[in-house]
Input
Amino acid sequence: MKIVFLGPLESFNSLRKKINNRFDLVFSKPDKNELSLKLDSADALIDASMKVALDDFLLRSSKLRVISTATTGSDHIDFESAKKNNIKIFTLKDDKDILKNLTPAAELTWALLMALSRNLTSASKHVLDGKWNREEFPGIMLKGKTLGIVGCGRIGQWVSKYANSFGMQILGYDPFLDKWPNQIKKTKLNQLFRDSDFITIHVHLSTETEGMINKDLLSIVKPNCIIINTSRGGLIDEMELLAGLKSGKIAGAGLDVLKSEPDIKENPLVQYAKKNANLIITPHCGGFSLDAVNIVCQRAINKAINFLEN
Output
């Protein structure tokens, strides 16, 4: 049986060493035409990339029986088309046993927060330009500041631990969490946006959450507020965020995700970031740590193989 792998080449090579000889594991670049050709004769697809929209064009294969993603997110998959074509979908969303110890996305969240609080990108460029004037780059002391966490699940709780170790006050909003973490003070969403010096977002994208960080919320933040989003670009009204950055209402933002990704060349936020150091954008690499990716890829392919064998 043939399994197509879409993701890092290093993870593909790692899986190929472990996979049963009964399965032919084939690598595909994140190119829609190449992937389409390889899916024509495939039984399964392992997706550790999310760079290709798995739409009806790709899912018409009469042989493809299962898609297993090495991600919790699945908004790039056309579930209606998969159902129509009798394709089973697996994600990591419910694999709490393996996810609870994966921290790369939380670590990038904290890296973005610290980079913005200490003006790291502009300070580094300043030195590379042959200058040495620290007064141009005053930092923000984190101790005593308030961090607001929107979505207090696995990643949000890791971020709260980092904030706690820095002596920050921690507010949280999550209407779906049953067991509330001790180090996070539960509050309403509006109150969180009013009272927080830093806000991080850790929410799954759905029809209910799309655009939840809207104009009303962004208009009530503190003037020194820094916003970090490593979840999905569609959660934030990007044009309102941009307006807030331009006006100075929002002091800074760190984004690992954009609504238009991977087609980002004309994105107004990217254009703004080219000239303004208070916006840092990274290419959805929060969860991309090879040691962590190899772990989730192994889980994803195990699910696909178990499905095919049974």
